[in-house]
């Protein structure tokens, strides 16, 4: 009865709506009058605000799953299930994280200490779970990830506007652009 894309849109905003509802519930309790109710209400409003901010940040990682493949995160390992370019990499062994723009699509490229690479499209199913996984990396914060995503999305939008005057050939743009987002501290070359 309800269209699948409408349900998907509601699911995308579900966590933000829950955080806002918790904030409103806290405000209602705060208006209860006594000091105990006001402190409880302030605590719930703070919890709801944190939940809403975290949900907004996680939404940047979630998009319509239009790329093939499925991303799973289990016990510190990122698995990309895909028939051609699938693989697995441990977050503990991760040495480098890059955001790649290739043919108008954003991809995460992860490299471990042995040099093995895993490339994951940002619009694969389960990509929203990468936000928490990447936030656990030492020295990498969620604002750093958001800044990298916003920067590359802005460049892609500008390139799309600049290329809109070109004739449509049906072939994707083949430009490759890499942005280094994170490297493990101390994983570089050391002088003896």
Could you characterize the architecture of this molecule?
By secondary structure, this protein is an alpha+beta fold. The chain is built from 4 helices and 7 strands; from the N terminus they run ααββββββααβ. The chain folds into 2 domains: 56 residues; 114 residues, no CATH class. It is globular and about 60 Å long. About 7% of the residues have low confidence.
Describe the SSE topology.
Layout: H1 4-30, H2 35-59, E1 70-74, E2 77-81, E3 87-90, E4 94-102, E5 105-112, E6 117-121, H3 130-135, H4 142-162, E7 176-183
Antiparallel strand pairs: 1-2, 2-3, 4-5, 4-7, 5-6
Helix pairs in contact: 1-2
Please sum up the structure shown.
This protein is of the alpha+beta class. It has four helices and seven strands; from the N terminus they run H-H-E-E-E-E-E-E-H-H-E.
Task: Fill in the keyword field for this structure.
single chain, 192 residues, alpha+beta, 4-stranded antiparallel sheet, 3-stranded antiparallel sheet, globular
């Amino acid at each position: 009865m309800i269209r699948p894309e409408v349900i998907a849109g509601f699911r995308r905003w579900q966590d933000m709506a829950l955080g806002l509802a918790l904030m409103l519930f806290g405000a209602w309790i705060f208006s209860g009058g006594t000091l105990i109710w006001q402190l409880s209400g302030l605590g719930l409003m703070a919890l709801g605000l944190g939940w809403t901010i975290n949900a907004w940040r996680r939404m940047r990682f979630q998009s319509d799953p239009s790329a093939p493949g499925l991303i799973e995160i289990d016990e510190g390992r990122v698995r990309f299930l895909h028939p051609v370019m699938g693989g697995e990499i441990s977050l503990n062994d991760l040495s480098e994280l890059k955001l790649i723009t290739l043919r108008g699509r954003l991809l995460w490229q992860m490299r471990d200490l042995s040099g093995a690479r895993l490339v994951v499209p940002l619009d694969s199913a389960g990509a929203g779970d990468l936000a928490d996984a990447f936030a656990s990396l030492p020295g990498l914060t969620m604002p750093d990830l958001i800044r990298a995503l916003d920067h590359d999305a802005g460049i892609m939008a500008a390139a799309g506007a600049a290329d809109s005057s070109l004739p449509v050939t049906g072939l994707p743009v083949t430009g490759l652009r890499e942005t280094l987002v994170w490297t493990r501290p101390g994983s570089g070359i050391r002088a003896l």
